[in-house]
Specification:
about 750 residues; Rossmann fold; 2 domains; six-stranded parallel sheet; four-stranded mixed sheet; elongated
Length: about 750
């Protein structure tokens, strides 16, 4: 494998280059050089996490408690820091509150020099990376030995961490073996994980025995007891804190909580969320300076143990006062958001990351600690798929953080780009195309048009453009109702349900809408059609938050009127349903209205399944016999549908009907709305989709009687671009089964 550090352009080195160009090159390099180890390891962590949380007695309750503790701690931060300082000093330790990263690094350097330190052993610490500590100590002539195995590997290879919990997650066993053989004289085979670990241990053991100072981070710090929580997998933190006489702990001020009695909540959540372990191998709770003899294995004559706690602000106070970024301070560095992120699985933190912080949560932290919007531009790799949201143990709305960053980048640029306008205002373009859809489709697929679209709007010419329907859902529905009037059609209240005519269903996929209408009619549940209104999701995805809020408020007022008339809202497009049930909470800033819309909005299969469960619908009376030439279903649930709790409803429904259902195990198909169309992200989109396509091909090869179902428009486009078989919306397929 190439050394990514030799090629990646670091933001601090490219003052004369645009951050867009930096991000583009980082993505290309990551796609070209990262191995399968990255995807395998992140997906393994993620899969293990799902298994582990099933064994937690009250997982959601634990998350609520963790969130509440962090909220209270951040709110009471000044008082807690004061109490912690008094507690540590009363035991003989020192506390230094650093306003900036430089101030923190300077302080640590001076402490080390005052102890005539020549060698530092250092446990993994993301905060030390943030303040550039190693660079500062090396410039002072002090050797720094990274003792975490992954950090040791990166120190040898001169790479940046690509993951918070597993910094070398992108490296395979073979590449590590080659790295060690290239950099150390050894005749060992170094073929197995055990051999590699033993080799590194032998080198590091000598460092531990010779070290003058030990430096660690801290997962949490309890103000009342002055206790540090340090979790690890290798035991290196115990050696770092106990062998040298001097221990320096570096932590952001957001790590301070009230009492160590609350450590238990986070101990249960940390390992389960990050790596899928019930508990990490080593969980340390220290109240330094620790009360144990000084060993002086390094030949020094230190008589007492000394402890220095460096609390780092470096932008955190400003984050606390920033309504958009404040939520990032609740992060407990578990990495669940990275492991569940399809884009991170594809390119890792060397592309989806900054100088220090990576993944979905990394953009907010990079902006908060560096103060630079441009350094946080990698937040644009967040598609808003929302799979990180239910996986976060403190319930941080990470997509919302990244949308805020996109919004600020747009404002800093003086307004939206042509690309943002194009994708954000797709609803307006669709209305124009409706005038002459056949001509629009023909023009859109001309070679010259595709070249222009790629150069002007950034739509990759390799991606197929979905066609506009010759006749919209509105028109088809009006014609259908002329010949298919419900018995009570003369009454304004003939239907209890209203199908929301979202933009894509109306202009591009009217067949999905009409299948929904026909199925409801066949089941004796006549359904009306709403007006066509933009829900704002396109604007939000481009970071145009204010305009998205305007569209959301307009639509919400209309939906409220329908709901007050006794209607239930049926939504065929999952991303729109997710807007109603999740995103509108922030876009509307009206909890009562949001709650009303969220409560009365349903996926069509979800709504029908609910009627079956409560005994209001006997589907068996309407099924066609024989049901279908298909007897097996491969179903891919839309990422946002899974986030709002609807991912398993369709499989449950079709199993009731009598089908065997296989479910995709990918977090996202990779298309993610406009993301997969953009030239700069097309290759990532395709890389992410590889897993899903492989699963589908494997299923089809085993059973030819398999039908493919996918709820989302984007999902069907991504699958359809690689698979020749038809991909149906669940309602389209159900339309063939009922009479």
């Amino acid at each position: 494998m190439q050394n990514i550090n030799d090629y990646k352009i670091h933001p601090r080195e490219v003052a004369d280059k645009s951050s867009k160009e930096v991000l583009r090159k980082a993505i290309r390099l990551a796609l070209d050089t990262e191995t399968d180890a990255l995807r395998l390891n992140t997906q393994t962590f993620n899969t293990n996490k799902y298994k582990t949380i099933q064994r937690l007695a009250d997982y959601e309750g634990l998350k609520d408690r963790a969130r509440r503790i962090k909220e209270e701690s951040i709110e009471n931060r000044p008082g807690l820091v004061g109490k912690l300082t008094n507690t540590i000093r009363a035991r003989g330790g020192e506390v230094f509150l650093a306003k900036s990263g430089k101030e923190a690094a300077d302080y640590v350097r001076n402490v080390c020099l005052s102890h005539d330190a020549k060698l530092i052993v250092k446990a993994k610490s993301i905060t030390s990376e943030e303040i550039g500590l190693n660079h500062e100590l090396l410039n002072a002539g002090i050797e720094v030995a990274e003792t975490d195995l992954a950090e040791f590997i990166l120190q040898v290879s001169r790479e940046q961490p690509s993951h918070i919990v597993a910094p070398a997650i992108h490296r395979s066993r073979e590449s590590i073996s080659e790295l060690f053989k290239r950099n150390f004289r050894t005749d060992r085979l170094l073929e197995t994980g055990e051999e590699l670990t033993e080799f590194a241990r032998d080198i590091l053991r000598k460092k531990f025995l010779s070290a003058d100072v030990g430096i660690t981070g801290a997962n949490l710090i309890a103000a009342e007891e002055g206790a540090l929580l340090l979790v690890e997998s290798e035991g290196n933190i115990r050696l770092t804190t106990q062998l040298p006489a001097v221990h320096i702990a570096i932590a952001g001020i957001e790590k301070v909580i009230a009492s160590k009695k609350d450590f238990g909540v986070f101990i249960e959540l940390l390992a389960a969320s990050g790596t899928g372990q019930a508990l990490t191998s080593y969980t340390n709770i220290l109240q330094p300076p620790i009360d144990s003899p000084v060993l002086n294995l390094n030949g020094r004559e230190d008589r007492e143990r000394e402890f220095y706690l460096v609390l780092v602000d470096n932008g955190r106070t400003k984050m606390r006062e920033d309504e958009d970024l404040k939520e990032a301070l609740y992060c407990i560095r578990c990495s669940a958001c990275m492991n569940s992120c399809a884009n991170f699985q594809a390119v890792g933190g060397h592309a989806f990351g900054g100088e220090c912080y990576t993944g979905g949560i990394g953009g907010a932290w990079t902006l908060g600690t560096s103060g630079s919007l441009e350094k946080a531009r990698f937040a644009e790799l967040c598609t808003g798929c929302s799979r990180c949201v239910p996986n976060c143990p403190v319930k941080i709305d990470i997509p919302r953080l990244n949308t805020a960053i996109k919004n600020r980048l747009t404002k800093a640029a003086g307004g939206p780009s042509t690309q943002q306008r194009f994708f954000g205002h797709f609803a307006d373009l669709a209305r124009l195309a409706e005038v002459a859809p056949r001509i629009s489709n023909k023009v859109n697929n001309l070679a010259i048009t595709r070249v222009l679209m790629e150069n002007v709007v950034g739509v990759d010419k390799r991606r197929s453009i979905p066609s506009f329907a010759n006749e919209t859902l509105e028109k088809q529905y009006r014609r259908y109702r002329i010949n298919n009037k419900p018995a009570s059609v003369t009454k304004s209240t003939f239907s209890h349900t209203v199908l929301f005519a979202d933009v894509f269903t109306n202009y591009n996929n009217p067949e999905v809408g009409m299948s929904t209408v026909r199925v409801f009619d066949k089941l004796g549940l006549p359904i009306a059609l709403s007006e066509v209104l933009d829900d704002g999701r396109g604007l939000q995805s481009q970071g145009l938050v204010e305009k998205a809020e305007q569209r959301a408020r307009k639509l919400a007022a209309y939906l409220e009127k329908l709901i007050d008339e006794g209607k239930e809202i049926i939504v065929a497009e999952p991303s729109v349903l997710s807007m109603f049930r999740r995103d509108y909470e922030k876009l509307l800033d009206n909890n009562e209205l949001f709650g009303k819309i969220a409560k009365h909005s349903f996926d069509p299969i979800e709504y029908l399944n609910g009627l079956i469960v409560n005994g209001s619908l006997d589907l068996s009376k309407h099924l066609i016999k024989p049901q279908s030439p298909f007897h097996r279903i491969f179903y891919h649930a839309h990422c946002q549908l899974k986030t709002i709790g609807g991912g398993n409803v369709t499989p449950e429904f079709f199993r009731r009907v009598g089908f065997t259902v296989d479910i995709s195990n990918v977090e996202c198909c990779g298309m993610a709305g406009s993301f997969g169309y953009k030239k700069e992200y097309y290759d990532i989109s395709k890389r992410v989709g590889d897993d899903l396509i492989s699963q589908i091909n494997a299923t089809l090869s085993l059973d030819k009687g398999t039908v493919l179902l996918a709820s989302g428009t984007s999902c069907r486009e991504q699958i359809g671009s690689e698979i020749s078989a038809t991909v149906y919306h669940p309602m389209e397929f159900l339309d063939t089964l009922v009479a």
